[in-house]
Amino acid sequence: MNKTVVITGATSGIGKALVELCLKANMNVIGLARDQEKALKVKSEFSSLTEGSLEFVIGDLADNQKAKQSGQKILSWIQEKHEGKLDILMNVAGTVTSGYHENSDGHEMTFAVNHLSIFILTRLLLPALKKSSDPRVLVVSSLSHYRAKMNWNNVESKKGYNILKAYKTSKLYNVFFVKEFSRRIQDVKIYAIDPGLVNTELGLKNTTWLAYTIWNWRRHKGTDVYYPTRFMVDVATQKEYANMSGHYIKAGKSIPPNPITENEEDAKKLWEYSEKCTGIRYDNID
Ligand SMILES: NC(=O)c1ccc[n+]([C@@H]2O[C@H](COP(=O)([O-])OP(=O)(O)OC[C@H]3O[C@@H](n4cnc5c(N)ncnc54)[C@H](OP(=O)(O)O)[C@@H]3O)[C@@H](O)[C@H]2O)c1
């Protein structure tokens, strides 16, 4: 039977390439998109790939309510069309943002989109994942997390905001989340993915002229979107990764992440902080 996969950030860059590869691997793809027109364009671009199926759910991940609504919409779709079962969740959506921006909950935007929304969405989709015989969750982190530090006095980069600092810290939290999740939940496998430098429009979207120009120059040194995504499909489907829950994976290989992510106390503290920020808890699943 075809696997069902949810892909966030499905209308551009890494997420869009994953949509294509998952369709080619005969999967039923549910893409999360914040822009209906972009979603329709992607649907039409891949309409000849009839091995699997592609549907989009329209939703945003910018604040708690929006992320929860997105999760509920996806869950309803899975219940209606896929007998309530989800095999793979790929948390790909992410942002890098010039200037300090707060969402409607008062959280810094990079922290909210890149970390809190993953905390919310993964929890909401857990009951559906638990119905799969081999459920797997991928979280796209980044090489930049190696340069980040844990600062409990400035968790959300609210003080002295800096675009790169906020981004790399959110990607550090992705690794902490993956590690803590793997300790708490054993029957759903989870992986932090390092895609390397990839030529996408990531740094062209919410950035000032300077950051835009730097990213526009730098991205051409990156790989194309198919390089990391082929490995990601392997991680989501191949047997060899079944015993690697909690690992940090780059180009298909498990490598050590930033050593500070091994600090279990910090991981637990960040988890509890995220519970407080979102009102989401991982106990009493089902
Ligand atoms: N490119 C790299 O070198 C690189 C390296 C390491 C990690 N990453 C990570 O890879 C992931 C994908 O990035 P990318 O490089 O492929 O860039 P991208 O093309 O800009 O993809 C980001 C995706 O996230 C979506 N998104 C952003 N904010 C959102 C929100 N509030 N609600 C819902 N969706 C939202 C975007 O939607 P739209 O299509 O509507 O813009 C887009 O589809 C990100 O997590 C990024 O941090 C990228």
Verbal overview:
With 286 residues, the protein is of the alpha/beta class. The chain has one domain (4-278): 3-Layer(aba) Sandwich (Rossmann fold). It contains eight helices and eight strands; from the N terminus they run E-H-E-H-E-H-E-H-E-H-E-H-H-E-E-H. It has an eight-stranded mixed β-sheet with strand order 3-2-1-4-5-6-7-8, sandwiched between helices. A hairpin with a 2-residue loop joins strand 7 (248-250) and strand 8. Helix 1 (13-24) packs across helix 7 (226-237), helix 3 (64-81) runs parallel beside helix 4 and helix 4 runs parallel beside helix 5. The two termini are 23 Å apart. The model has no long low-confidence stretch (mean pLDDT 96). The chain binds NADP nicotinamide-adenine-dinucleotide phosphate. NADP nicotinamide-adenine-dinucleotide phosphate binds next to helix 1.
